[in-house]
Design goal:
Number of domains: 1
Structural class: mainly alpha
Radius of gyration: 21 Å
Number of helices: 9
Largest sheet: none
Distance between the termini: 60 Å
Helix content: over 70%
Shape: elongated
């Protein structure tokens, strides 16, 4: 089993798992604070449903990828990696913008369900809140497994095992959130894991372009820029770790290297910018209907 694939899967499972655990923990904690512990079971029903649907989507995608003959398998793999990188990028910036408002919005949604609708609406609330994280995780893991499978035997299994470990850690963190632990700096946690996933996404994009080169769909910029396989080969040792984790190759084509840098540099810059403070809500302000 390749260690780089294990770490890549762990980072994905941990990041996405903590986001889902954060959502569920906030809902449960608010129900407990408002004397509605009797509705906990509905939250678990919605959460379990979201996990089941996400798992089914991931399995269906992976089986579909493996069911195509060449060159359609490579084309579908490239599409899966493009989609995974795109969804991940959207998720990172969405979470970056919305993190400060998630708690208040969830609590307001719980209040609406309890006061206006059926209590089973809580199950729907939990399902819709968690399913986004679950589908994103499935898409991204399929992309990682697809990219890793060609790098070394057992790499795909390493990604999945790492994701399970990451999700298990996320469950523990979710329990700490519910219990009221304040020692974890969640802003720093999300920032650091987000940075790592940006590098993984860049590797997915470059690997997707490489797949298109192999099937002849990309014919421009296919010359090798440099060859450092004598120093750091991508098929053994540290190079294999970096290939599985970050999409490293010791013999990059001009276009794959260009795609890697064209994604990595601007996305890193945008992600590292300070998040603008939310405008203050004025007391007694009235909302006028248009």
């Amino acid at each position: 089993m390749e260690f780089g694939s294990l770490i890549g899967g762990l980072l994905t499972g941990l990041r996405e798992g903590v986001e889902a655990a954060l959502i569920v923990s906030i809902i449960l904690a608010y129900l407990a604070q408002t004397g509605n512990r009797g509705h906990f079971g509905k939250i678990w029903v919605g959460t379990a449903g979201a996990v089941g649907v996400s798992l089914a989507i991931g399995v269906a995608l992976f089986v579909t990828v493996r069911g195509f003959p060449e060159p359609y398998e490579q084309l579908f793999e490239a599409a899966a990696m493009f989609l995974a990188a795109g969804v991940l990028t959207w998720m990172l910036f969405w979470m970056r913008r919305q993190a400060r408002r998630v708690k208040g919005e969830l609590q307001a949604a719980v209040d609406r369900v309890l006061s206006e609708g059926s209590a089973w609406g809580l199950a729907v609330l939990a399902f819709t809140a968690v399913i986004r994280e679950g589908v994103e995780t499935s898409l991204f893991l399929v992309g990682q497994v697809t990219a890793a499978t060609g790098s070394a035997p057992g790499s795909g299994v390493g990604v999945l095992l790492g994701a399970l470990i990451g999700l298990a850690i996320a469950v523990v963190i979710g329990s700490l959130i519910y219990a009221g632990a304040r020692r974890i700096n969640y802003a720093t946690f999300f920032r650091l894991t987000g940075l790592a996933l940006i590098f993984i996404a860049a590797g997915l994009l470059s690997h997707a372009v490489h797949e298109l080169i192999e099937v002849g769909w990309v014919t421009v910029g296919t010359q090798t820029v440099f060859d450092i396989s004598g120093v750091l080969p991508h098929d053994e040792g540290i190079g294999l770790f970096l290939r599985a984790l970050l999409g490293y190759t010791s013999t990059p084509e001009l276009i794959t290297l260009g795609v890697y840098l064209a994604y990595l540099l601007p996305v890193l810059w945008l992600y590292m910018r300070p998040v603008p403070a939310a405008p203050p809500v004025l007391e007694g302000a009235q909302v006028t209907a248009a």
